[in-house]
Amino acid sequence: MNEKYHYDEKADSLFIWLKEGREENFEEIVPGINVELDKDNNIIGVEILHVSRLLGMEKKKIAIPSRSPS
């Protein structure tokens, strides 16, 4: 896995991969921030919802390249 993050402009969410794996579940750790879990409940990533609001920016001004794992 080369790319470590993906920004979805339409959903205004940022996903950060910590390790490879298939998401089987997630847990909201604080409102708008989820940890993604594999079948063994190991953390494989972090999802931040409404990231532009969290950063105090408009969606169209966020300069996070869109990437996803290969």
What does this structure look like?
The relative contact order is 0.32. Strand 3 and strand 4 form a beta hairpin. The radius of gyration is 12 Å and the shape is globular. The chain starts with a strand and ends in a 15-residue tail after the last helix. 7% of the residues lie in helices and 39% in strands. The chain has one domain. The model has no long low-confidence stretch (mean pLDDT 84). A 5-stranded antiparallel beta sheet has the order 1-2-5-4-3. It is mainly β.
Which helices and strands appear, and what pairs or packs with what?
Blueprint: E1 5-8, E2 13-17, E3 25-30, E4 33-37, E5 43-49, H1 51-55
Antiparallel strand pairs: 1-2, 2-5, 3-4, 4-5
Compact overview of the structure:
Helix content is 7%, strand content 39%.
The number of helical elements comes to 1
Alpha-carbon Rg, integer: 12 Å
Shape: globular
**Broad structural category:** mainly beta
Strand coverage percent = 35-45%
Alpha-carbon distance between the two ends: 6 Å
Average pLDDT: 84
Count up the domains.
1
**Major beta sheet, specifics?**
5 strands, antiparallel
How would you spell out the order of helices and strands? EEEEEH
Strand order of the largest sheet: 1-2-5-4-3
Please give the number of β-strands.
5
Contiguous low-pLDDT stretches (5 residues minimum) are none
Helical content (DSSP H or I, runs of 4+): under 10%
